[in-house]
Amino acid sequence: MPELPEVETTRRGILDAVQDHCVLKISVHNPRLRWPVPPELSDLEGQQVRTITRRGKYLLLEAETGTALIHLGMSGSLRLVSPETPRKTHDHVELLMDSGLTLRLHDPRRFGCFLWLTTPPSEHPLLAKLGPEPLEPDFDGNWLFRYSRGRSAPVKSIIMDSHVVVGVGNIYANEALFRAGIHPLRAAGRISALRYERLANEIKAILAYAIEKGGTTLRDFVNSQGEPGYFQLELDAYGRGGLPCRRCQNAMKEVRLSGRSTVFCPRCQH
C-alpha cells in the first residue's frame, strides 16, 4: 500500500498541474471502488481546484463548492498524462484540466476512493477520528508516552494505529523502531518518555527523508509521472530478515505481527 511519503510525493507531483486550474471534464469509467464514486462528483466539472492537501494517506482536492477526497487503496496511483495517452484497463477516474493534462486514478484492486464532499472534510467519517500528523508539532514523544500509559499492546501496533498518529505504515514503523533501538514487540506501556521522544524524532526523520527521496518503491507504486521512488535502496530493517544488522552484524529476525512483516535486530533493539 502506498504509505504517507508516497502519497505526499504524489501530492507534490501533481500540484502545479492541478492547483489554480479548472476541471474541464470528469470521466468515471468504473465507479465500483471500495467506496463507490458518487454521481455528485460531476459537480466538480467547471470548478477551479484551489489547492491540494493531504490528511494521513488521503488527498484532498479543494474546489469552490466542495472537496474531492481521494485514497490510492492498496495499489493505486495518480498520474498526469496527455489526454491522448491511451487509457489503461484500471484507469477508473479521469480529470481533464485546463493545464492541458489529464489526472488519472489508476487502481487495479479498486480499494481506493474518489469521493465528493460538500461538508468540512474534517467531519467526514474517514477523517474525523484520525490522530495527529507525524510531521506536525503536535506529534511528539510526550504524546506517545501519554497515550501508551497502561497499554500492553506492542509498540509497533501503537505507532501504526491511525487514531494515535496517521501515516506510519509498516515499512516506516520498522525503520523508525530500528533507528530508535526499540524492540517492536515491547509493550507500549513499558517504554519511557525519553525513549518515546527518540522514537517520535526518528518517525519524523524517516518520513521526511523518504519524502525527500521520492517515497519507497513498492511493487505497485509509481509517482505522478509514472516513475518509482528510490528510498527502498536505503532501508535498514524492512525486507532484511536473516541479513546482517547494519550496526552489529547480528542476523536480523523477522516475525509476523497482525499479519505484517516485522523485522528487528535482537541485539540492538530492546
Percent helix, as a range, is: 10-25%
Q: State the shape.
A: elongated
Instruction: Please indicate the count of domains.
Output: 2
**Average pLDDT rating:** 92
Question: Helices and strands, in N-to-C order?
Answer: HEEEEEEEEHHHHEE
Q: How would a crystallographer describe the biggest sheet?
A: 4 strands, antiparallel
CATH architecture of the largest domain: Orthogonal Bundle
Low-confidence runs of at least 5 consecutive residues: none
Q: Can you count the helices?
A: 5
Per CATH, what is the topology of the largest domain? Helicase, Ruva Protein, domain 3
Spatial strand sequence of the major β-sheet:
1-6-7-5
Helix/strand-derived category reads: alpha+beta
What radius of gyration results from the CA coordinates? Answer: 20 Å
- The tally of beta strands, per DSSP, is 10
Distance between the termini: 28 Å
How large is the share of residues in beta strands? 15-25%
- What's the level 1 CATH class of the largest domain? Mainly Alpha
Report what the structure shows.
The chain folds into 2 domains: 120 residues, MutM-like, N-terminal (N-terminal domain of MutM-like DNA repair proteins); 124 residues, Helicase, Ruva Protein, domain 3, CATH 1.10.8. The chain has 5 helices and 10 strands; from the N terminus they run αββββββββααααββ. The strands form 3 sheets. It has a 4-stranded antiparallel β-sheet with strand order 1-6-7-5, covered by helices on one side. α2 packs across α5 and α4 packs across α5. The model has no long low-confidence stretch (mean pLDDT 92).
